[in-house]
Structure formats: C-alpha cells, structure tokens
Amino acid sequence: MINPAKKLKGKTVLVTGGAGFIGSHLIDRLLSYGARVICFDDLSTGRQEYIDSKKDDRNFIFIKGDANEMKDIKKAFSHGPVDYVFHYAALVGVQRTIEEPLKVLKDIDGIKHILELALQHKIKKIAYASSSEIYGNQEKMPLHEENSYYDIKMPYALVKSAGENFFRSHWELSGVPVVIYRFFNAYGPRQASSMYGFVTGVFISQVLQNIPPTIFYDGKQTRDFMYIDDNIEASIQGLLNDKTTGETINLGTGRETTILELANKIIKISGKKLKPSLLNKRNLIEIKRRVADTAKMKKIIGYRPRVSLEDGLRRTYDWYANNPQFIAQGERTTYAWRKKNVWAPIKKSSKTKKKS
Ligand SMILES: NC(=O)c1ccc[n+]([C@@H]2O[C@H](COP(=O)([O-])OP(=O)(O)OC[C@H]3O[C@@H](n4cnc5c(N)ncnc54)[C@H](O)[C@@H]3O)[C@@H](O)[C@H]2O)c1
User: Fold this and answer.
1) According to CATH, what is the number of the domain 187-223+255-288+307-346?
2) Which atom of ligand 1 is nearest to the CA of 23?
3) Reported pTM
4) Is 161 helix (H, G, I), strand (E, B) or coil?
5) Does the 7-185+226-251 domain belong in CATH 3.40.50.720?
6) Domain extents for the chain?
7) Phi and psi for 275 in degrees, rounded to 5?
C-alpha cells in the first residue's frame, strides 16, 4: 500500500463538492496527510458546518461557486498550481434528480469544464465520482466493471454514464490522467438524512425519532454498504496509484445486504422496540439487487474494506444521536415519500410496466 502522507505532503488537491458528505470526509483525510486543499462547493446540498472546523487551517481554502459555470470553477485554479483533483460535485440523490431531471443535465457542463481545466493546468490526476446506479437493473451478481449491459432509466445515472465516457475519452485522446470510481452505497456520519438523502441516514433518523423505518417494496432488495472511511481511504490510494490511470473501479465491499436486514440492524443498535414498516409499494425504478465485484479494487488499488457493517452503523448511529441538528424531522423522512407519484402498489407493478 502507498503511504499517502509521503506523496501528498505539500501537494495541492482540489475537491469539488468538498462541503458534502463524502467530500468533507475526504478533505479531513487529505489535510491529515499534509496536503493543501482547495474546497470548491456551491453549498446546494453541502453544509458550511462540515467545513467550518477547517477554516483556520492554513492548508485549507474554501471557494464558493458553481462547478457548472466556467467563470466560477476557474477560480479554483487561481491559487497556485493544482496537483490533483477529485471531481465530486453533483446533484445527488435519486429523488432529487427525479424531481429535477433537467437540472441534473447541467452537471455535464461541470464535467466538461473540469476536464478542460485539468488539461490546461497539466494536473497529475483527476478522480471522478461515478455511481453503481449506472449498472441499472441487472440479474447477474456481483456487478463487474466490464459488464457492458446498462439498463439506465434515471437521469442521474445517465449523467454519471456520460461523465465516465468524457473522462475516459479525455484520458485516451488528450492524455489527462483519470480514475473513475463507481461508488456503491457509501454511508456514515454527515450523510443527508431527509427524503433526499440515502437509506442509512433516513432509517437512523427515523429510529432516533421512534418512527419505524419505512421500507418500500418487500425489503428484499439489496445494496452494498461501504463505510465512509473505507471509501475515502480506497479513493486516496487509488488516486496515488499509477496502475489505476484510465481505469473504472467499483468501490464497494462485495457484501450484499437486504434493506430489511439494514433496518433491523439499526433497530438493534438503538435498543428500541420498533419494527420496520413495509409499505408494500414499489418504486417504479427500484433496483432489485446490487453488490460490487471488488476484485479490481483489491487487485489494482490493493485495498480491502476494514469496517464491518455493524461497526459502521454503530458509528453512524452514535454520530446522529450526538448531532441531532442534522436529523431530518418527522414527516420529511417518511410521509412525504408516499405523496410522490413514482411509487406504485406492488400488485399493479406488471400492468404499470407494460404501459410504460
Ligand atoms: N453517497 C453515495 O453513496 C454515493 C454513491 C454514488 C455516487 N456518489 C457521488 O459521490 C459524490 C459526492 O456525493 P455525496 O454523497 O457526498 O453527496 P452530497 O450532496 O453530500 O455532496 C455533493 C456536494 O456537491 C455540491 N455541489 C452540487 N452541485 C454543485 C455544483 N454545481 N457546483 C459546486 N458544488 C456542487 C453540494 O453542495 C455538495 O456539497 C457525488 O458526485 C455523488 O454523485 C455518492
């Protein structure tokens, strides 16, 4: 394994989306390795509180701006040479991008700008946050990077797929060194817990408010949950490793967990007498199974996830319990979902499918 402190000390790293869940953890780690960090964020879903503690660090610069506007993102390159870039800014969350399908397309501008600037400024390497969403609904598990069948319906996944292609072609045609990460469900402290967030944060905030975790469909749908520390460490190792250049790599654990199991584990940690509430509705775009093939991550990056799901959930639960200001309140975590027309009763699913 690479010693990141050796490679990063004194280097400048730009993190777009640096005030968000993953970006802010990444910045904490980069600063601890002695890097100089430029955090670029429009604070649309990111939070000032996640970067406040760093504002007196002389190695930290915050620039507020929109990555999709060239005049803004250019400013991130005006504080001396940038060595590395993590392009993590994006309109995030399935629900948000369903509601604003055209807005998410704007992120393609940001991808083009950052690649153009990376080329101009001869940066050493740029990492792109893609998503397991680009696999769509597939039968064969685990999901392997080379699997070329994509059944993509969501605008978010379409943009990520376009982003991957732009990144790959810039490496092949212009020689900009890139690495593409397909994140599976990253989770941990600071993840959004509202209906626009991700399932782990939503369930924990429900349980902390004595609301039974609300499960759509039958709870047998599966995901691959990777604790934030593992996601960050693997991404930094991957950035600094020459063997990853031009590669697309799954960042997951290879552990398949049903949503029902996840809810029960969180309830167990809480010690409360709650039962998950099965809503018997299916999301029209619900993905049935998802688990990463991690062979490439282990072989090329040399990284093996260290945090068990139980440990990671416990740490995340404790963080929310100690930081109640970040818990989405009551209705926002549950009932609002039911009003959205992307949900349909399970029985009607086959009819609905035929219609579409
Ligand atoms: N969390 C996951 O499990 C997961 C899974 C797959 C992919 N990803 C990807 O990882 C990245 C980080 O996601 P996250 O979970 O930390 O979400 P997040 O919403 O917490 O972080 C995204 C950050 O980007 C910022 N941002 C959004 N649009 C911007 C723009 N146009 N200009 C500048 N800043 C902008 C937001 O304010 C926020 O701080 C995203 O690219 C996301 O698509 C995350």
Assistant:
1) 3.90.25.10
2) 16
3) 0.93
4) helix
5) yes
6) 7-185+226-251, 187-223+255-288+307-346
7) -125, 135
Please report, as a single letter, which amino acid is at residue 1.
M
**Beta carbons within 8 Å of 27's beta carbon, 6+ residues apart:** 15, 18, 37, 39, 51, 54, 60
| Token representation of residue 97 | 């991008």
- Catalytic: which of 50, 88, 135, 156? 156
Using a 6 Å CB cutoff, which residues line ligand 1? Answer: 16-17, 19-23, 41-46, 66-68, 88-92, 110, 129, 131, 183, 185-186, 198
Q: Write out the chain's pLDDT in tens, 356 residues.
A: 899 999 999 999 999 999 999 999 999 999 999 999 999 999 999 999 999 999 899 999 999 999 999 999 999 999 999 999 999 999 987 777 777 788 899 999 999 999 999 999 999 999 999 999 999 888 899 999 997 656 777 888 889 999 999 999 999 999 999 999 999 999 999 998 877 778 999 899 999 989 899 888 789 999 999 999 999 999 999 999 999 999 999 999 999 999 999 999 999 999 999 999 987 666 666 788 999 999 999 999 999 999 999 999 999 999 999 998 888 765 444 444 444 433 334 344 444 444 33
Tell me how far the alpha carbon of residue 41 lies from the centroid of ligand 1, in angstroms: 9
Q: Is 128 a catalytic residue?
A: no
Retrieve residue 192's tokens.
């959004």
